[in-house]
Specification:
Elements lengths: L21 E3 L17 E5 L17 E5 L9 E4 L5 E4 L5 E3 L5 E4 L8 E2 L1 E4 L2 E4 L13
Antiparallel strand pairs: 1-2, 2-3, 3-8, 4-5, 5-6, 6-7, 9-10
Length: 141
């Protein structure tokens, strides 16, 4: 989404263990159109594969996990790196999510997990392999 690789395709080597989540938008591989709306914001992180829980591992690619990048508390972007390499946090209000365990909340104020997006690696590129497994952003009611 931002930085020196803005607008470029993310390759697996761009996602390293211990780095903050990458904020990205999905792109149509045929048309190269980027789906850049706020609702499409995703985070990518690489988690040590031994730290991926069984429900999460089949939806990851070489330790790379993808989740909705919108915090389920008040809709801020998830952009913080926690000291634990499988956790990401929202810098707005401090909610912490376990990306090695299906995006579950480990510290609020968020009460709902992040929606995970299954990914795979095809021809050296990260590819969406399914749909988000839950709602994005804060509850509407």
């Amino acid at each position: 989404m931002t930085g020196d690789k803005e607008g470029q395709t993310v390759v697996p080597d761009d996602v390293q263990i211990g780095q903050p989540p990458l904020l990205v938008y999905p792109m149509d591989p045929k048309t190269q159109d980027v789906f850049g709306s706020r609702a499409n914001l995703l985070i990518l992180m690489r988690v040590p594969e031994t730290d991926l829980d069984p429900p999460t591992k089949p939806h990851s690619a070489d330790g790379i996990v993808a989740y909705s990048g919108i915090c389920t508390h008040e809709g801020c972007p998830i952009s913080g790196q926690h000291e634990n390499p499988r956790m990401a946090l929202c810098n707005c209000h401090g909610s912490t999510f376990d990306l090695g365990n299906n995006g579950t909340v480990v510290h609020g104020p968020a009460t709902r997990r992040l929606a995970m997006l299954p990914v795979t690696i095809t021809d050296g590129t990260l590819v969406v392999a399914g749909r988000l497994n839950g709602p994005i952003g804060p509850p509407t009611s």
